Amino acid sequence: MKYLHLLLIAVLLCACEDKFADDSASRTTLHVELEMPQLPEGAEIGNPLITVFNISTRTTATYTPQSEILLLPGLYDISYSATVNVPDATSSTLRGLSASVQVGGTEQTVAIKLYNNIDTDDLIISEVFFAGTLQRSGIQYYGDDYIKLYNNTDHVIYADGITLFESRFHTTEKRDYAPDIMDEAMTVQALYTVPGNGTDVPVQPGESLLLCDTGIDHRVANPNSFDLSNADFEWYDVSTQPGALDIDGPVPNLDKWYCYTKSFWLLHNRGFKAFGIARIPLERDTYLKDYLYTYNYIQVTVAGDFPMSQSAYRLPNEWIVDVVNCSVDALYAWNVCSPQLDCGYTACGTIDADKTRYFHSVRRKLLYMTDDGRAVLKDTNNSTEDFNRMCVPSEIELQGTATDSQGTPCSTRTYDGVTPMP
Predict the structure, then answer these.
(1) What dihedral do alpha carbons 393, 261, 236, 347 form, nearest 10°?
(2) Which of helix, strand or coil describes residue 177?
(3) Which one of 17, 141, 368, 378 has the fewest beta carbons within 10 angstroms of its own beta carbon?
(4) Which of 408, 402, 156, 381 is closest to 276 using CA atoms?
(5) Is 346 left (phi over 0), alpha (psi -120 to 50) or beta?
(6) Which pLDDT tens digit goes with each residue over 329-352?
(7) In 154-201, which ranges are E strands?
(8) What would the mean pLDDT of 128-144 be, rounded to a whole number?
């Protein structure tokens, strides 16, 4: 059973030196309704926090529910988080998000649906390298993008059957898609699955699984790149476009379930998508038959507004293990998944086509080191808090390859792109 818990937050509109310089500007009283999930008997909620993110200024402030929050009129993401402690049970995190809230007027109400997130005890995404490298000429090189999965637990996890996916929708373009299924599922356009019979692909505690675009030594074609011929798996596409053929490297291929492209799949090299992993409890053909999702929206153009209808695949939230929303600060509009899966986003670069993004990745933050030397990474289902931005990719660090188009070799090693290794 769900119930509503009402918090009253007074939001006073401050004056600023330009548009809002008038001290007589009206104030907004913001009522936040928290829709609580069913919690275990005896559960105690601790450390509740409200985080307000100004989408226009990219500034963040955090408050307790009892605090007075002073905001200028504008567009905000408003989130809530708290710990849930149950005697003799695993603690969990209560969180929710109301995205793209336009604050203004005299009074308004914002509803935040909360989810009780319990650790999935599975692999997590530790790194996404989508930006790519540059050739000596300064031209972008393609094919060396990759995603790393990490075993953040203290026991072996088998990656057999885990599916890598990409969102259909862009984090830089918010539309009113109908029917709205985000509270139940993600809309995806690429699905590649780790093959195996259940125990063929073990990932030891503190170790990674490297999934890449093309598993070759890219230094042959681009001396500024690195070697991916020892990756664990690659995603390979049989292209129907003779002028755009994929390369089948020497590493094992992921099982391709579906991809929207008729040539070959590349990670969006500016990071306008969400990437995730899931465990789909169905056979491929059954999933593709039963989980097609047709959605409608309005395409707004200078020539007018046009109704559109398209199809992709829906991936139920309960099957999803981990999601990382990526974007770029200047264009970020929304997260393309439920707050149950991710309450934030991460980025390489700050503007569209940012030339500084090359030779950089996003990497999950180090939380602590265990006594036996195993890295435990931060995982709160909030990519803003969990990831370091604009990092030297781990493969560049490990191989000591180029960090720029001039071929400057990497001479550092870190756990997470920030914390140096001894």
Answers:
(1) 10
(2) coil
(3) 17
(4) 381
(5) beta
(6) 999 999 999 999 999 999 999 999
(7) 157-158, 162-167, 185-193
(8) 97
- The single-letter DSSP state of residue 414 is B
Closest by CA to 274, choosing from 392, 147, 117, is 147
Among 117, 122, 116, 127, CA closest to 163 = 122
> Beta strand pairing status for 146-150 and 208-212?
antiparallel
Which residues sit opposite 299 in a β-bridge? Answer: 306
Q: Which stretch of 91-95, 289-293, 304-308 has the lowest confidence by average pLDDT? A: 91-95
Q: What is the pLDDT of residue 23?
A: 41
Report CA-CA distances (Å) from 118 to 93, 206, 281.
Answer: 7, 20, 20
Q: Which of 80, 104, 96, 102 is nearest to 29 (CA)?
A: 104
Task: Give the pairing type, strands 3-12 and 69-70.
Answer: parallel
Which residue in this structure is represented by tokens 């139940």?
A: 184
- Under DSSP, the state recorded for 179 is S
Mean pLDDT of the chain: 90
217-254: per-residue pLDDT in tens?
A: 999 999 999 999 999 999 999 988 888 999 999 999 99
CB-count burial class (<10 Å; 0-12, 13-18, 19+) for 204 = exposed
pLDDT of 118: 62
Q: Around Cβ 62, how many Cβ atoms within 10 Å?
A: 13
